[in-house]
Specification:
The chain is of the alpha/beta class. Helices cover 39% and strands 17% of the residues. The protein starts with a strand and ends with a helix.
Length: 299
């Protein structure tokens, strides 16, 4: 488990934003921001922190979304839009004026929104979505083989909704197993399964944990669609998607990549056998593609 640091940003009246850098910041290198997936944390990118080729080519900066890891706010209601603003404010406070952004699943949605924050003087040099969808949880995406978020999440949201205090709350084993199965793959191994079951239960323990888990699930199920906004993304896009992704399909990615009409380059690369959490299942292929993309567009 990585040890994150906290920086306070002003959005929502104050957010304690949790971030992790595996090595000291080097201003001579490009920076890659890493945005994690639903109910995971900065630990999702452990393989990348240990990749010396990746570390020698760029700074890595993982920022944990609202409701995830150690990021905290007093607000009980927030959206992915708030996380995107928070991320840009973290970059601003850390003095990073230009960055590439990589995000997995919900993190991929957030990366594609970050490009529009030119008013904060942060230049987004490129976005790298992994195993994501830019749409809301629509019938269109389900018809293309994506999961049914209302069916898969509503039961948990309802169970986590109460007016009573829940000091002993922790996510059920069934929820943890479901997330691990669809994210890391059913054959991910006992060590991975044990780590993430423990991590999810610990991070979302107690009444505050229940509220964060509930809002994170509501954000995923009820998020906005970005399809009409993708033409406003003006930086290059590299979309990486596993062929064994159990949540969002390659067929959906093939349709949505075409909507980045004003990006100088927008390519989709399907990675054979890749799971939903692609940086976990195929770390070498992801790192190689990321290095090539960053080297090409770091101008």
């Amino acid at each position: 488990m990585v040890t994150t640091k906290i920086v306070t940003v002003p959005h929502l009246g104050g957010i304690s934003a949790s971030y992790y850098m595996p090595s000291s910041y080097d201003s001579s290198k490009p920076t890659l921001v890493l945005v994690n997936s639903f109910t995971t944390s900065a630990d999702l990118y452990t393989s990348q922190y240990e990749d010396q080729k990746l570390l020698s080519a760029m700074n890595l900066l993982a920022i944990e979304l609202l409701g995830h890891g150690q990021t905290r706010t007093k607000r009980e209601n927030w959206t992915y839009w708030d996380t995107a603003i928070m991320n840009v404010q973290v970059l601003d406070i850390l003095g990073i004026e230009k960055a590439f952004v990589l995000g997995t699943s919900q993190g991929g949605w957030v990366t594609s929104w970050a490009d529009w924050h030119v008013w904060l003087a942060i230049k987004i040099a490129g976005v790298i979505p992994l195993g994501t969808s830019m749409d809301y949880e629509s019938e269109r995406t389900r018809s293309l083989g994506c999961w049914d978020a209302p069916k898969n999440l509503t039961g948990s949201i309802d169970a986590w909704t109460t007016n009573y205090l829940t000091p002993d709350f922790e996510p059920a084993d069934e929820f943890c197993s479901f997330l691990i199965d669809v994210g890391f793959g059913k054959d991910c191994g006992g060590e991975v399964r044990s780590f993430w079951t423990t991590s999810i239960k610990r991070n979302y323990y107690g009444d505050g944990g229940r509220k964060r888990a509930r809002m994170a699930a509501i954000n995923l199920r009820d998020r906005d669609g970005l399809l009409g906004r993708l033409r406003d993304v003006a930086c290059p896009v590299l979309w990486l998607h596993g062929t064994s992704d159990a949540v969002y399909s390659v067929a959906n990615a093939e349709e949505e990549i075409q909507l980045f009409a004003n990006a100088p380059e927008a390519n989709l690369k399907a990675i054979q056998g890749g799971q939903h959490f692609l940086s976990f299942s195929q770390p070498d292929e992801v790192s190689s593609a990321v290095i090539d993309f960053v080297v090409k567009w770091n101008k």
